[in-house]
């Protein structure tokens, strides 16, 4: 069911837990940025994190499950055109290209090094793949260029104002935007998770995982972002699994 939250004016100050976040949830936030988002961090460190994401995604079949979600959204479209934003390692696009015989996929990331690494892989040679460097908050594409845009495990990287821009831009250039991201856990479980991860924070992959957890959006935050962006959103969440948001332009 489509749900529209009442608009909140100060979207930039919205807690990650949403307008109705508890005091404890508001404490479980950080302004610290992930290494992946920092210009002062070596590209080698960033590549290491992206490679670890790819390996873990393979191990736990995350890429396959994300591809399933993408393919379900375009099941009724003949020769679908798909834009992947924030592709990182490109594994999701690779799965989609393997599993759909006619889909055309534009594989993109804001990080030009990541795009170059994907271009140097098998995807760079694929006849139905196009590689682009794209900022999801300001997409250089005409309105309605794609059937579907997808942003996986990346939405929490963006503060609320930019996140709302992604919803507006993704639904401008595509008929539907699919956001797949980490869930925001109930606070007590969240504290337990952070405590379990803390001893490994020296590992950049875990550092970014910890920061991601603190920056993940709750369902009410996602709905408020949708209302602010003026788009219809549907959110399905599970505190132990991925959170999925489907966004469309209002008719
Ligand atoms: C945690 S990685 C996720 C990679 C991959 N999608 C996955 O599922 O494993 C986050 C990615 O989002 C990208 N990213 C961050 N901000 C972005 C933006 N404004 N536009 C496009 N991509 C962005 C980063 O460069 C990085 O590759």
TrEMBL record:
<dbReference type="InterPro" id="IPR029063">
    <property type="entry name" value="SAM-dependent_MTases_sf"/>
</dbReference>
<protein>
    <submittedName>
        <fullName>Methyltransferase type 11</fullName>
    </submittedName>
</protein>
<dbReference type="GO" id="GO:0032259">
    <property type="term" value="P:methylation"/>
</dbReference>
<dbReference type="GO" id="GO:0008168">
    <property type="term" value="F:methyltransferase activity"/>
</dbReference>
<feature type="domain" description="Methyltransferase">
    <location>
        <begin position="82"/>
        <end position="173"/>
    </location>
</feature>
<keyword id="KW-0489">Methyltransferase</keyword>
<dbReference type="InterPro" id="IPR041698">
    <property type="entry name" value="Methyltransf_25"/>
</dbReference>
<dbReference type="Pfam" id="PF13649">
    <property type="entry name" value="Methyltransf_25"/>
</dbReference>
<keyword id="KW-0808">Transferase</keyword>
